[in-house]
Amino acid sequence: MIPFFKYQGAGNDFVMVDNRTTTYLTRKDTKAINWLCNRRFGIGGDGLILLQNHPDYDFEMVYFNADGTEGSLCGNGGRCTVAFAKQLGIINHKCTFWAIDGEHEATINTEGNWVELKMADLDTVHCNSDHYVLNTGSPHYIKYVDNVGQLDVFTEGGNIRNNATYKKEGINVNFIEPLENGFHIRTFERGVEDETLACGTGVTAAAISFALEHPEKATTLLKNGGIPAKAEGGDLKVRFVQHGTSFEDIWLCGPATFVYNGKIKI
């Protein structure tokens, strides 16, 4: 019997397991994790996260894609893990934790439903004729489109993710439409192999591309607290300090909500 908790951040949902005192799952349990993330036969989620002890940090976050493979950084998953850690009494309002891409800082409000996560600095952005490619803890392909709400993200995103360039390693594909304040984003995620309602590292990558694509508007928004992002599952915000094509002090901000908890037999 595995005790689990379900969290979601802007519609990005995760199965959370407290792995500190009892080792319920390991990196070898690919099939079990895939089954637990299945929305028909398991619990259902865009991914599964193990919260584990770490000798030098408040905790360690180990993230798995829905297909059971260990993933690169998941921004919304990281924010939900911070909310989970607060619920478990591990942290109060601030923490540092370890993830696959290294150290992260985070803050969480008193109510425990708004989390701000510091991302790694970024100094490389590939600007192509009709898209951007950058890595914000996970690799992202950013393409600006009209009427993003009407786009067939599953087909268009899947075609890019599975083309000759990206098929082997995979890439997350984000379609962006600028708004009066910020942008509307929809994402096809590798590992899930479908559209997800939000993607934290994708929103971060999109906000950085927005600053390059619309510098004056981005500067104004950043002075007012950050660049708003409208995802299908909710609103997020990204703030950072820009030096040309380098970015530092990057923070992904948004809701992280407890949904329910229970036990499941595997």
What does this entry look like structurally?
Helices cover 20% and strands 41% of the residues. With 266 residues, the protein is α+β, with helices and mostly antiparallel strands. The protein has a 17-stranded mixed beta sheet that branches. Helix 2 (75-88) links the parallel strand 4 (59-65) and strand 5. Helix 4 (200-213) crosses helix 5. The longest helix is centred in the N-terminal third of the chain and has 14 residues, at 75-88.
Q: SSE order in H/E notation? A: EEHEEHEEEEEEHEEEHHEEEE
Supply the CATH superfamily name of the largest domain: Diaminopimelate Epimerase, Chain A, domain 1
CATH topology value of the largest domain = Diaminopimelate Epimerase, Chain A, domain 1
Shape: globular
Give start-end ranges of low-pLDDT stretches.
none
The largest pleated sheet is described as: 17 strands, mixed
Global structural class: alpha+beta
Quickly name the level 1 CATH class of the largest domain: Alpha Beta
Measured between the Cα atoms of the first and last residue, the distance is 7 Å
Radius of gyration over C-alpha positions, nearest whole angstrom? 18 Å
Helix content: 10-25%
**β-sheet strand percentage:** 35-45%
Mean pLDDT: 96
- The appropriate CATH architecture of the largest domain is Roll
Count of individual beta strands: 17
Count the domains: 2
Helical segment tally? Answer: 5
